[in-house]
Fold this protein.
Amino acid sequence: MRFRDTHAVPELLAPAGGPEPFNAALAAGADAIYCALGNDFNARRSAHNFTCETFEAACRAAHLADVRVYVTVNVVIRTCEMPRVLALVRKAWLLGADAFIIQDWGLLMEVRRRFPQMECHVSTQANVHDARGVAWCRDLGVGRVTLSRELSVDEIAMIAREGVELEGFGHGALCFCYSGVCMMSSLKGNRSANRGLCAQPCRLPYELLDGRGRVVSAEGRGRPLCPKDYCTVDDLARLNDAGLGSLKVEGRMKAPDYVHSVVSSYRLALDELAAGRTSTPSESDLIHDRLRRAFNRDFTNSYLDHRSDDDMMSYERSNNRGELVGSVVGSRDLGGGKVRRGGSNGGRARLRSKTFAEIDVLLDRPVGAGDLLELRPQDDSSQFLTAHAPSDALPGDTISCRATRVLPRGSAVRVIRSKRAMDDAARAATGELRPRRGVDVRVVSHLGQPFAVELVCCDGSASARAEGFVVELARTRPVTREDLVEHVGRMGSSPFEPRSFEVELDEGCGMGFSAVHALRARAVEELTRQVEAPVRARAEGLATVPDLRDIELELGNLRGAPATQGAGAAEVCALVDDLDSAEAAVKAGATRLYATPEALRDMDGLVLPGGCVLVPWLDEVCRECDHERLDALVRPGAPCAVGNVSELALAARRGAMAEVRDCIPVHNTSAAVALERAGAAGIWLSPELTLEEGCALARAASVPTGRMVLGRTRAMTSEHCVLQVADRCIHDCPRCALRRRPHSLRATDGSLMPVRTDVHGRSRIYAATPLDATPELPELLAAGMTRFMADCTLLSPDEAASAVGRVAAALKAAQDACRAEHDEVVSLGGLYVLGTERHESRRIDNQLRGRSGRQGDPGESRFYLSMEDDLMRMFASGLAQRIMSSGAYPDDVPLESKMVTRGIAGAQRQVESRNYEIRKNVLKYDDVMTEQREKVYSERRRVLDGEDLEPQIEAFRAQAVSSIVNAGTAEGRPDEWDLDALWDELGRLYPVGLTQDEVVEALGGKDALTSERLIDELSEDVAVAYEDAEARIEANALAHVQLGEEPMRTLERRILLAVVDKRWREHLYEMDYLKEGIGLRAMAQRDPLVEYANEGARMFRAMMEGIREETVEQIFANVARFDAAAQRAAEDGTVEAAQAVAKANATAAAGIRVGQAGGQGRGTVLGDTGQASMEQRVTYSGPSESGEEETSGASSRRASRSGADSGGNRAERRRSRKKRRH
């Protein structure tokens, strides 16, 4: 059922990059939330995506609130990754996902084929622009299509007539390029946007140069590829009338305050639209203020009106603009001074010089206390400052802000972060503001009958009834209807809230309200079960995940007998965009000529030599307005290269021989098969594929494959004309003189990317470095690839001839080498395959046999078998053995029998069936380990990425103490507890600073002891002990030399890595040992798989508890070792050397030995503990908030630490912590 079938307005679809934004979206009123499970297969891999545990909890919360959850799998998939991604999809479905957003056509085919019960949505990355493409998706079984951002309202209305639910972008960041066809990030930084690693190069500064190298960009337009953010809050009525089914808010990388502000604003606007109300000016101002005070690059809705003018671009800046609220009217220099920095948690305090100023701001818009203000001078925008609003203020007020320097009058003042929005989002992110689902309540109270409470969800999706005590006559005051409404309606913290009451009550009924409360709680619990029941039932009948071998076998069956694609001759191909280049390419040896639609209009008189084919090279964009010029080029029986699925659908309908361009990414065998079944007669492979991947796909394809081997790769295709950055647009593209001249974009590193704009105003940007893959032709040719292209669209006729000639020469050299090797083998009689044993798999036998006698070449394959082989011994008939032992045949005469061959074939089928069942069972056992792996590896990744571990270590301390105390106080009364043993156990964890008597006295005697109060006291003590340890190691010169500037943070990371690695290895051995013997549980009528899962979960919990305790124990122990090492170094006179090295910050002395100065890498206190893993950190580069390029990751991060008292003894600090806590 589509959302609009039951609702008057589109679904509000919110983003969530993790649990906190998810809770914010729920609280803000989202109808559905899209997010990712794990970090491997989605377009926002660097977000804090969900683990299985957090995802399951999020789905449960969403379903109880009647909110759907969609999982993004919107990246291209490699062949080897297909089993993993199918396992992820299956796992997400079982955990509660309601639909999957998919880009890869191969993955879509596999999911629809294996899991038909799952709802699939086509991602905007799939590049669908028109009704024909949407109809094609509908025929694949897709439930929803996400349209390109570039479509207008009129186009959306036309597409909606196809009856497919449509999802459109409503708010958030705009990509400059059409989604799914952008390769700039991949070409500039080897981070493919199609693989979820976009570095956002479009946000960086560029200069537009003409053919002579002169800058033609207008002043102040330094970011020609940076669009404003999309905002359709004023266009909801138009989108609703057009038939849009879902309104999507972009922002899975955004913080909870952004998600909460934007989603709540659109919720308010959509609710008013559904009610038929028009917002008052004050309500409209509230919505717009809230949107502008969330992150934005200014707003545009140009695409909705079929425009792509300058007003949609943020040329000046790519970071947050906020909302303009006033200007600077005066400022005063307050002088300078010294401020104290650092010193918390035992760190070193530093004094820094700082200047102060007071700035007066005249407001045009209201601000709130604590709002973050940006103050930016008009003449030099790079010299901006930030300050906080001191108090609430209204328009016309003047506020005074503290800053670091004076600013000129007239400087613009903007609110870039709202304190109120952040506070609201902080509450929402905890989950306390989750919406509650409305229920209709029916209470039945008849004398002599059971009291009953019925709860029915308002949408009728679930209901529950609970019956309890028998109703009797009242002994005192009878119960009234109001009493029952009040007490049954108290649903407290449950996920439900009453919307209506129906009470059937006899006169004179009496009852205890505690019994009513208990019955209401049972009804709520039952209704919760009913709401969650559909998810729990999903496992029944759900297919298992195949391995790669099974997928390949099934694809072979889908495809049928593979065509001998290698039988076709290799062809030199050329892509041209004018007649002169076409003629030059043909003369240089091109046998297959591809031409753009514009170039084809001038080629009516082109005479091609015999055997040369002219093929239309259709655009990667095909909107409704493009049909007139593109559809005519798709002719029955003629070849054409299609750039999107709309053109592919048209080619299949007309019987044309469609070749899929590389902008429809084919990165796996399943995608190749899916497109072949859809009518593709050829495939051009993506330049993002490695040589090995390209060769593997060429071997697997049953249609001709090709690859561009020379020329510049197209990096972007944009609806916006890049040339508008020159501020010379005449709004008449056919007559534009600027368009006819060559231009390029110069990046900050000096590289030049050519730019071409067509007659329709669309710009194409090409790679800065030309591709030359001609040296790879021998491998590509050997893999079966037959088409090799030189892209001549940017070349002059002479350059085109040279490029085509180079490809032709390289192809001839590769063919000659291959032919010489072939002739040598043929001259020797061909390949003879001698098999001494039949494999249990027929596929392996056939592959081996197929190595000889290929395509008419001489050769032979023969298997000589022994009757002692396993297959012959177990499955062959006794007749073969009798013939062998009869002596009727000489020993040198081969015995051939169809009876034996048939017996072996039958045996192979039985063995393959058995092996298939074994593999399925292995996968079931592996599923048990998958969640454990994800949790452990995500923990390691956090450490390797340099995340601040202080909060986690704090939790480790508390949990370790709690675990020890609970174990020591589990039995008996407090006066029977063995406190001596408990203190001994705690002493192994950390140096305990409290005695038993002090604790007993502080808690008021042994009778007042409880495990909870003990945990509270000891948790405070271990925290203070940790502060002591941190202070000591911060003051330890040797620690600074060996561990760096922040020794405690480095020590935490190295020890946690070492402990996790050691415990995880031990756990893996234990799980393997468990699996070996778990089958014996079947003798006790227990399912071994269920037992394995339960035992594995118990062992994993024990491992995690051990990690926590050992990490804390080792941190304290290593701090003590550093203390001892420093003392010995002082006695030996090496501490001065260590301090000098630390002061000089020289890394060469990082291995200073304890007790001996010098020595590199030897004698460190920690040795190599955790160091090898620490060196595996990864860094990423991309634009910062200001749009400049920055590097982030482990090497660029510094963990910030919260303040803590560092003075006084341990007892004083314990008291201080207690005061702060209370």
User: Anything to note?
Assistant: Residues 33 and 1217 are 40 Å apart (CA to CA). DSSP finds 36 helices and 40 strands in the chain. The two ends are 52 Å apart (CA to CA).
